[in-house]
Fold this protein.
Amino acid sequence: MNDSQASPLENPASRVVDLLLVTFNSAHLLERLRHTLMQAERHGVILRLLAVDNASSDSSAAILRRSFGCDVFIQNRENVGFGRANNQLLEHVRSEYALLLNTDAFVSPRTIAMTMRYMDEHPGCGILGVRLTDEDGGLQPSRRSFPTPSTTFLRRTGLERLLALHGARHDIEEDHTTQAECDWVPGCYYLVRRAVLDDIGLFDPRFFLYFEEVDHCRRAREAGWTVAYLPSTSVVHLGGESAKSVSPLCAGRQISALQAESELLYMRKHFGRRGLCSHVLLVMLGDIILAGKDLLRGRGPAFAFRHFHASRLTWRLVRSTAWATRPTR
């Protein structure tokens, strides 16, 4: 980060971290992002900025060039997706750690330094995430369990809450106060060790948007690295900004199609054809349960049967992805 008005670093022993940033119609967020990164640089880090603009139609690229002092800048002619854009920067990573940061994620001044220190103290940790909050301080899911066909079904239908009431909760997502290892952390703040990238690479390019970090954490754990969650520092995450701006995929149903497709690709990759079939059948069963709930609440057939959009969408994507063996874009 370069800024003629910035004060000298407070810590003379500052360390360099490669910051990977992907923009897509993010101009309205970039000044705030730049300000928070400048504050972070005053607390023990020097940011080497590697940026990709995914064919923005606003002034994102111009702002990056003018105000951010990018060490590497790539301007794509089309939107290639979040994972693939980050992959374009992989060959330029030089430092011990790389930080993937969303343009709608704003770090507190000491967050980057604290997370780098944690990684220094835990050499087996390959990927680290932090506590995520919204603007009002409300907690967002920050440490997650790997999805399976059954857990996805339970969460979507609300049956997960029923099981929790009877002491049968199967994951750790509600515990955001404990520093611990976990399955995966969201990609909006994603500190990854360079050795992990050398070992397994970065994101599977089949995931255009959603599930890329879930898959990456799973591969890292399979390779012997741990994934950890640090609740002692936080990041304000607006959420959904990338999906909102995926033009022309801007309507709610179309955004859900991106998520549904990535979910199918993930289930097929990690659970095989049998797992994929289980997932599809559970999506259909989930639609029936959700529709039944609405009918019992007296909301009427028209309202209830809107849930069957998920089944129709899933079957369409099963066909267009050749049973989740290839992406549609």
In short: The beta strands are 15-23, 45-53, 72-75, 97-101, 105-107, 125-133, 139-140, 180-182, 189-193, 226-237. Residues 4-10, 247-255 have pLDDT under 50 and may be disordered. The chain has twelve helices and ten strands.
